[in-house]
Design brief:
171 residues, mainly alpha, 6 helices, 2 strands
């Protein structure tokens, strides 16, 4: 007969009060694993969804110029290759995890421009969400360089020398 109890069973079938924390620890371990790999998945999504449209800015240049002009983007002949180059640089940064937050920021900014000019579509929303996730979580495992904002700011050179006050002509 099956009997419900307030105690949890451990791996030997014995009911103990210690089995509950073990189950909870397993749950937090799984959550940590998911959170550890989530940035890598977000990087992959952003790269895979953006790669084809980025390349098309060069392989279908004339068509893309017409699209940009129809969206009201100024200087479409220049905007198309510049946008394509920015996307390709962002893809490269995200792929290798070298300053991936910078790459994610570049893609996120591009997707906001897409939404403002051409209207949002499922792909641009997906890239925007994935890029925002990388901006927040970092690039995750298998990254060459993923500094936090605090690390970047703390590494800036600071001029510790005292400044001389500027004299005014009014004195």
């Amino acid at each position: 007969a099956y009997v419900m109890s307030n105690h949890n069973a451990d791996s030997t079938g014995q009911t103990t009060a210690a089995a509950a924390p073990k189950a909870q620890n397993r749950g937090t371990k799984h959550l940590r694993t998911v959170l550890a790999w989530l940035p890598g998945a977000l990087r992959a999504i952003a790269v895979l969804v953006t790669a084809y449209p980025a390349v098309r800015k060069f392989t279908q240049y004339g068509y893309r110029v017409e699209e940009f002009a129809a969206y009201g983007i100024p200087w479409p002949e220049i905007a198309v290759p510049v946008t394509g180059a920015i996307e390709l640089v962002a893809i490269a940064l995200l792929t290798v995890g070298l300053a991936g937050r910078l790459g994610a920021g570049m893609l996120a900014a591009g997707m906001l421009v897409v939404a403002a000019t051409a209207g949002s579509n499922p792909f641009s929303i997906l890239v925007l969400v994935a890029s925002a996730g990388v901006l927040i979580l970092g690039t995750g495992p298998y990254s060459y360089w993923d500094p936090t904002v605090e690390e970047l700011v703390s590494s800036w050179p600071v001029n510790d020398s005292p400044t001389t006050p500027v004299r005014s002509d009014r004195e």
